[in-house]
Task: structure prediction
Amino acid sequence: MLIKAMTKAKVKYATLCFFVILLLPYLGHAGGGWPQPKGHGFFKLGFWWLRSDEYFAPNGEIIDISTAGIHTVSFYGEYGFTDRLTGIIYFPFFSRATLNEQVSASTRELLEEGDAVNSIGDTDITIKYGLLQNEPVVVSASLTLGLPLGNEAGGDTRILQTGDGEFNQMVTVEASRSFSSIGAYATVLIGFNNRTNNFSDEIRYGLEAGVTVKNFTLLGRLYGIESLENGSDLEAPSNGVFSNNIEYTSFSPELIYTYKDKYGITASVGTAFSGRRVLANPAYSFGVFVKL
Result:
């Protein structure tokens, strides 16, 4: 009974972090302080995956869990309606969340069956406006609406998620500078995420820098989330299991290859230096894109 209770606790901890896993692919999509020029766009088909048997517990310690995984296939697009106004969409049209079965190491007895769910994921729609353009430092502001289109209680156990079931509104300000003489740029951002359904609101922050040499761009992103801890305690299962008051700091290097300034491929890896209620293993992504 003790082993079974511990196994169920591991399953619970694994599912607590799923909505954060779904957020991680979004981080590589922002265009900094530069909106798309009128009539131009950027469109990307992305693949993102993560498997982990380790987890940052609520106290920040790394603990062992039942192996959890998620695989996402998404469409991301930016289009310039004017030189200052850009529309952006992130649509994960296929997401698969899994939990591995648990077998006793000594007796090989099945302790917990595996579980899986396939669904679309939560979708982001963003409007970005250029506040300060044609200056050494450009500044933009964005409003992002997070649409709860994913499955918040999936699988046979009803504890797997491809979405968090809440409608959020996030305001972000980004400032960027180009260092054209060396083919480099840098961006900083700060954001406030208002969340519904008694989830705590969040402060988000980030730093991104990159350099281009011929057809290759190498960049790195530092991104963090701090909870305001003004929501209810949602650790107990209710309509599925979701983590609240999540916090982490992550680093994500990315390599981009561009062909004829129009087509390209990207590959990246993301990992968390520290966290609360988030998987502790790296996440990987790959994408193909076209610019108009």
